[in-house]
Amino acid sequence: MHLLWLHRWLAFDKGIFMTTISRLLKYVLGYKLLLFIAICCILIVSGCSLTFPWLIKGLLEDALNKRDLFQLNIILGIALMVAIIQAVSQYTHSFIMNYIGQRVLFVLRNQIFEHLTHLSMKFHKDSRCGELISRTINDVNVLQNLIISGAAVLIKSPFILIGGICIIFYIHWKLALLTMVIAPLIAVAIVQIGKRMRQITHQIQEKMADVTNILQETISGIAIVKLFCAEGIESKRFFEENKGYFHLYLKGIKLMVISGPLVWLIGIAGMLLVVWYGGYEVSHERLTAGALMSFMAYLLTVSRPIQDFSQANILIQQAIAASQRIFELLDTRLTVEEAIDAEEMSDVKGTEGIKEREGERETEGNIEGREGRISRGRIEFEGVSFVYDDKPVLCGINLTIEPGEVLALVGPSGGGKTTLVSLIPRLYDPTAGTIKIDERDIRGVTLKSLRRQIGIVPQHTILFSGSIASNIAYSQPDASMEEIIEAAMTANAHNFITHLPSGYDTPIGEHGVRLSGGERQRIAIARALLKKPGILILDEATASLDTESENLIQSALFRIMHQQTTIIIAHRLSTIIRADRIVTISEGNIVEIGTHDELLSSGGLYKRLYEVQFEAIG
C-alpha cells in the first residue's frame, strides 16, 4: 500500500513505477538481515527526531517556568542520551545502506557485463559502444543515490510525517487543521517538478551516451583522426554533443535546486500563518507558550520529511529513467541460445575420418593434445541461408567439408565468405537450413563445447591489454610456457618476441598498439594454434604480413593444417593454391568448386579474379 501511495505522490505511471521498483527490490532484498538492522536504526532515528520537540515542551513548561533545576538536569540528560542514540543509529544505517548500495551496483554491473558478452554479434554490430558503456557505468551510478539516500527517506519520512501529524493534532487540533491547508500546495509542486525531472533525466542519460560514444570512437581511431587532420572536426563534434549535455544538465539542475526552496517557501508561509493563529490562541489563554513552541518544533520536524520527499522525488525520477535503460539492456533476448537439451560436443565419437581420407599421411586425427577434443571435423551446410536486416547474405548454401580437408573460400568482397564461417561457431544462426559437425546439428550442442573445437584468426586482429604470453594463452589459459612458445614459433612470432625488452612478458598496450600490424596478426595466429582446435578458420590470416613472413607462416600452417579441418578465406589467391578445394562465393551463392587447376581450366569467376590479381601484380 505504501508503494501504491508513493507512485501517486511522486507522479509516476503506476505500471512503470511498480515494475521498476519491484525489480530493484529483488537486488536489495538479497541482504535481508542488514536491511532489517538498517530499517530498525532508521526507525530509531525517526523516533529520536520526534522526541526532541516534546522535550522542548517539558523544558519550557516544567523546568524553566517552575525554575526546577533538578527537572532541568533530568530533561537535558534525557536529551543527551537521545542524541547519542540517534547519532549511533544514524551512523549504523548510513554505513549499512552505503554497503548495500555498493553491493547492488557491483552485482548490476557484473550482470550487465556478463549479459553483454552473451548477446549476439548482431546486437553488438547494431549497438554503439559508447551507449553500452554509458548504460553499464553512468546509468548504474545514478541508482547509487536512490539506494543509499532515497531508501532511507522513503522509510524514515513517512514514520516522522505520520507520527508528527498525530502529535500536532494532539497538541492543538485547530492549528493542525490549518497546516493541512498547505499540504496540497506542496504536493502539487512536487508532482509537477517530478514529471518534468523524469523527462529531463532520460534525455540527460541519452545525451551522456552520445558523448561517451564520440569519446570512445575518437580515442580508438586516433590514428585515422591524425592522419586526416580531423582533430578540429572531432573536437567540434564532441563540443556540440557536450554542449547539448551541458544545457540538458542545467535544466535538470534548475529543477533540482528549485524543488527544495519552493517547498520551503510554501512551508514558511504556512508556518507564519500558524504562528499568527497560535499567538492569537496564546493571548486568549487557550494555548500555553510551551505548547505553541512544541507545536512549532513538531511542525519543523514534519516539514523536513516533506522537503526530503521533494529531493527523493528527484532521485527516484532519475533512478527510474536510468533503471528503464538498464533493464531494457538486461531484457534484450539472446538470439543465439542453447537448446534446453543441448549436449557436450565431446560426446562426438571417432577420429578415424582423417586416417581414412589421408591414407598415407601419418596423423593421429584432427584433434590432438588435449582431452575432450575428439570431433572429427566434418562440416555440412544443408540449404543454409542468412538474412541480415532484410538483406539476403547467403542463399541456400550446400557444402560438405571433409575431416582434415583444407578448403579455401574466395570471391568478391561482400559475397558472404566471412558470414559463412561465422555460422560455424554460432556467432550467428542461419535464417534457414542446418549446419552439422560430424552429423550433429550444431544447435543441439552447448555453445562452449562447440566453440572449444574451433580456432579462428579473424580478419581484424583483436588483442587485449596485458602481456604477449597472456594474449597467446587467451585461447587456452592453462597452457604451459613451453606450449605458448611452440605456438609462437609455428606462427613465426618467437623471434620478434624474444627481441622485445621483456620477451613474452612485454605488455602490448590496449588493442596491441605497441606492436605492428604484422606482429599483432602473428600473435593472433599463435593464439589460435595454441588451442589445437578440431576446426581452424583463417580469415585473411596473413593479410598484414610481409612476403617473407607470409611464406614462412604458410609453410608452417600447411604442415599442420591436415591435423584438423581448415577453412581459409583469402583475397590474395597465391596463399590458397595448395588448398584441397577452393569454393568461389559471389552474392551469397556458391558459383564454383574445385582445385586451383580445375578452376583455372573452367574459365569461371575464380580464373577472372586470379588473372586480375596477377595482372595487377605484374
Summary keywords:
alpha/beta, 21 helices, disordered N terminus, 4-stranded antiparallel sheet, 618 residues
Can you give a write-up of this model?
The protein is of the alpha/beta class and 618 residues long. The strands form 2 sheets. A 6-stranded mixed sheet has the order 6-7-8-3-9-10. The chain has a 4-stranded antiparallel sheet with strand order 2-1-4-5, with no helix packed on it. The chain has helices at 2-9, 14-28, 32-64, 69-118, 121-126, 129-171, 173-180, 183-220, 222-227, 231-283, 289-330, 352-358, 417-422, 447-452, 468-472, 481-490, 494-498, 517-530, 547-560, 596-602, 605-617; strands at 379-388, 391-401, 406-410, 432-437, 440-441, 454-457, 535-539, 565-569, 581-586, 589-594. The chain contains 21 helices and 10 strands. A hairpin with a 2-residue loop joins strand 4 and strand 5 (440-441). It is elongated and about 120 Å long. It comes from Candidatus Desantisbacteria bacterium CG_4_8_14_3_um_filter_40_12. GO terms for molecular function: ABC-type oligopeptide transporter activity; ATP binding; ATP hydrolysis activity. Residues 36-318 form the ABC transmembrane type-1 domain.
